[in-house]
Design a protein that fits this description.
The protein is an alpha/beta fold. The chain is 39% helix and 13% strand. The chain contains 11 helices and 10 strands. The strands form 2 sheets. It has an 8-stranded parallel beta sheet with strand order 3-10-9-8-7-6-5-4, covered by helices on one side. A two-stranded antiparallel ribbon has the order 1-2. It is globular, with a radius of gyration of 19 Å.
Length: 323
């Protein structure tokens, strides 16, 4: 495993991270989930990403149980706050009240004294940036969190957070967690340049485009019953990004040929492609089997040849920047 700093900041995370959306606390049985998390750790993964809203807290509980038999100081644990955790008017968003309460709830579910990275799962236009930055500053000073980050924020929103943090002499966000892969490249326009200038690192989700970049889907063929696309929630996500169109799947078939030439799997090429830029600190994978973890960790340290990169860019062409 190879490790990278998140942006300009000192902490180092594994190039491949393990996430838990729709898996741990959800479709994967608890005992198997814990086994997979332990296996990932044995393969060198030190970054484990979850969120309070994943399985309505159950994902954090499973991750917390897995951590009991792991060396805590060797792990980097990220979770998130924003989406509704109840029906009350203050049970969602990024208000001081909700963030503090959910930080405490996440600590309890994870059975931790401190969260390494607390991320704002989305931007909240109803909360002043001063309120959010000061809240994260207080949680840091109290030892409840080490760092904070954001997810799916625009370049201007990230820049505003930095500006306010500087004014308040408070810690700024160190990371952004966007959707980023060969088929979804919208962050390249303004988010990445802004983050590179500020020293914010990307920890990207869906680097395999919800499985499309594994080659398991083919144009004109039925969706495999045991695949992620068979889940209506994932399918809606994929359709919204045009990931299942015949045009996209035809591109994927051509990418598979490049992977074969490089003697790599398409998954490994897709992850290595994301990691081609140092601004991407880690790619967050999901897994339901240890074999998937074994395959994907082999992407760490892979540097694609210039010939492969040229062919990939030619195949991708003007990939839609639809978000």
């Amino acid at each position: 495993m190879q490790y990278r700093k998140i942006g300009k900041w000192g902490v180092k995370v594994s190039e491949v991270a393990l996430g838990s959306w729709l898996t741990y606390g959800g479709t994967v049985e608890e005992k198997n989930s814990i086994k997979q998390i332990h296996h990932a750790f044995e393969q060198g993964i030190n970054f484990f990403d979850t969120a309070n809203v994943y399985a309505h807290g159950a994902s954090e509980v499973v991750v917390g149980k897995a951590l009991k038999n792991m060396k805590r100081e060797s792990c980097f644990i990220g979770t998130k706050v924003f989406f509704p955790m109840g029906e009350g008017p203050n049970d969602k968003g990024l208000s001081r009240k909700h963030v503090v309460e959910q930080c405490h709830a996440s600590l309890k579910r994870l059975n931790l004294d401190c969260i390494d990275l607390l991320q704002c799962h989305r931007f909240d236009p109803e909360v002043p940036m001063e309120e959010l930055v000061r809240t994260m500053d207080d949680l840091t000073r109290q030892g409840k969190i080490l760092y904070w980050g954001v997810s799916e924020w625009s370049g201007s929103q990230i820049e505003d957070a930095y500006r306010v943090a500087d004014l308040l002499n408070a810690p700024p966000p160190i990371s952004n967690q966007p959707c980023y892969n060969m088929l979804t490249r919208n962050i390249e326009a303004s988010v990445m340049p802004t983050c590179e200038r500020l020293g914010v690192g990307q920890v990207v989700f869906s680097p395999l485009a919800q499985g499309v970049l594994t080659g398991k889907y083919a144009p004109g063929k039925a969706i495999p019953a045991d695949s992620r696309a068979a889940d209506s929630r994932v399918n809606m996500f994929m359709m919204g990004r045009s990931l299942m169109s015949d045009e996209t799947l035809q591109r994927v078939e051509k990418l598979k040929a490049v992977a074969d030439e490089e003697k790599l799997t398409l998954s490994q090429v897709a992850l290595a492609w994301c990691l081609r830029t140092n601004n991407v600190a880690s790619v967050i994978i999901g897994a339901t089997k240890t074999s998937q973890i074994d395959e994907n960790v082999k992407a760490a340290g892979v540097r694609l040849t210039s010939d492969a990169m040229s062919k990939i860019e030619s195949i991708l062409g003007q990939v839609s920047a639809r978000h």
